[in-house]
Amino acid sequence: MTRLRTGPYLLSLLLSITAPSSITAAWSPSELSLLRLQWLGSLPPLPADPSNRVADDPRAAEFGRRLFFDRRLSANGEVACASCHIPGKSFTDGLARSRGVGETKRSAPTLIGAAYAPWYFWDGRSDSLWSQALGPLESPVEHGGNRLQYARLIRNDPVYSDHYETLFGPLPDLSDRQRFPDGASPVGTDAAIAEWRGMAEVDRKAVTRIFVNVGKAVAAYQRKLVPGLARFDRYLEKVFQGDPSGGGLMSTDEVAGLKLFVGKAMCVTCHMGPLFTNHGFHNVGAPDPAMSKPGYRLPIVHLFIEKPEPDMGRYRGVRQSLASEFNCLGEYSDATKNDCSELVFANTRHQDTLGAFKVPTLRNVADTAPYMHVGQFATLGEVLRHYNAPPVAPSGRNELIPLALTDRELNQLEAFLHSLSSPPAVSAEWLQIPDL
Amino acid sequence: MGTVDRMKRGLPGGLLFACFFIAIGGHAQPNQEKFIVTYKSQVEPMPLNRIHSWRMRVETTDGMPVTGADIRVDGGMPAHGHGLPTQPVVREIGEGNYLVEGLKFSMTGYWEMWFEIKAGGISEKKKFALDF
Ligand SMILES: [Cu+2]
């Protein structure tokens, strides 16, 4: 390893002797300005979330941390947020499809740095961290519970009710089983839906309000999970300080990979900025598992079995977020219309959204296999081969341009992707189950 | 080619970009401009990957403000084959001035913006080129 590094180091040493003005000779000025955009030092402070009044209240973060790790928030007492977003795995679970009460349709993304995003889920069907959390809690394959069950848990647990009431005011009395049955929700099991229909409007709203506030507390916790400096950032810091070797913190191959990333391979067009995402939705034509099922293209088969539906990604996600009662403009949001420009100006057009998925962060990517929205690729090598020769998209139009990189270059890109790991910049107690 | 406005600005990353626009209206005679359009970003320098608005002014070739125009916005990155990340909306604010709200440029590179302006039975398409 050391031998690999001495080469460029000597070269740059030589350069700095012969040409003292070009101290960072390895990087051109235009590359340096792109690198500065990727550097964690350029990450702005976490933007406020006006839709969540308690977003930056430390008491809400503490309450949210307890909720995040609490398995009682599930149909079977076994599933917590942390079951699929495991702190030791950069808040992912290592699976293509996650397992809660059942199996999910998509793969669990990391939560580190997620609070910076304007949209959540691979298709952006939520426009806030708090409304995102409400999805898995009532999904029959994830936590599998319902909002009335959760409201009652908050009400009956003395620690939780205490936390809750300090933040959000008095909890309603939920003990009248005529008004508040065992479980009820507008989504989920048929039984829960039937019970929900039987409830009075004002009681439904009271329960939904508690449910929403659970989401807001969990969001406050997740806002703590901002990325820490990776080896890549420390390398760049040295480079910006005028040390062309970057303190020897990255190998020659990693540096070559970085050069490709911001240059010829054009990764930086989408994976732009200190979080390695432009927070947009793009079509990169990852294979759709639904369409690789045997017989997908044989019409006759679909006379007998239902034709699997391809994942339309953002096309459907943006419509769901616009229709959601939990969006920025809805009655449970604390925002005013002016705070909701992402939603108000959301692009719904067919040609810009069909088959597009959220550009994921690449921070910690070496630790978050498998990759893409359904874990279609097991390794980074497979991802890179896909980028090198992009196929026809399963739906919509693939935006990628063939790269024709050599095997050596692909290996360098992969090496670079290993320099982006770092635990979140918070103290360890935020990453473990609190003492209840 | 009817270039009305030329600007140079710095980006946070120290990148310089120039933005100018070219009128492409009038099929037979490309120089037959019908409207003169100028714009200015409400946020300076024009921010990368952040929603912002432009203030736009529409005048006739003899300098009269054009009111009540129906303006459509479209755009994208031709080289990357994608459109705008948002769907901007144009609102009239009076005396030939308009607000283009909800604009966002989500990556560095060459962007095009197209404006279709209709007023008083006349219609013209304008193309703006932006190099981030
Ligand atoms: Cu682009």
Describe the structure.
The complex is a heterodimer of chains A (436) and B (132). Chain A has 436 residues and is an all-alpha fold. Chain A is 37% helix and 1% strand. Chain A has two domains: 7-43 and 230-290 and 354-420, Cytochrome Bc1 Complex, Chain D, domain 2 (Orthogonal Bundle); 58-226, Orthogonal Bundle (Cytochrome Bc1 Complex, Chain D, domain 2). A two-stranded antiparallel ribbon of chain A has the order 1-2. In chain A, α6 (147-156) packs across α9 (201-222). Chain A starts with a helix and ends in a 19-residue tail after the last helix. Mean pLDDT of chain A is 91; it is low at 1-24. Chain B is mostly beta strands and 132 residues long. Chain B has one domain (22-131): Immunoglobulin-like. In chain B, the strands form two sheets. Chain B has a six-stranded antiparallel β-sheet, with no helix packed on it. A four-stranded antiparallel β-sheet of chain B has the order 3-4-8-7, with no helix packed on it. Chain B is globular. The site of copper (II) ion has 5 residues of chain B, from loops.
Mean pLDDT of chain A: 91
Shape of chain B: globular
Low-confidence segments of chain B, given as residue ranges, are 1-30
Return the CATH class of the largest domain in chain A. Mainly Alpha
CATH architect. name of the largest domain in chain A: Orthogonal Bundle
Spans of at least 5 consecutive residues with low confidence of chain A = 1-24
SSE class of chain B: mainly beta
**In the CATH hierarchy, what is the architecture of chain B at level 2?**
Sandwich
Might you state the CATH topology name of the largest domain in chain A?
Answer: Cytochrome Bc1 Complex, Chain D, domain 2
**Approximately how much helix is present in the residues of chain B?**
under 10%
Q: The CATH topology of chain B is what?
A: Immunoglobulin-like
How many E strands of chain B?
10
N- and C-termini, Cα separation of chain B: 22 Å
Q: What's the story with the biggest beta sheet of chain A?
A: 2 strands, antiparallel
Give me the count of strands of chain A. Answer: 2
Number of domains of chain A: 2
Radius of gyration of chain A: 24 Å
What profile does the largest beta sheet of chain B have?
6 strands, antiparallel
Characterize the overall form of chain A. globular
Q: Largest interface, and how many residues on either side? A: A-B, 29 and 24 residues
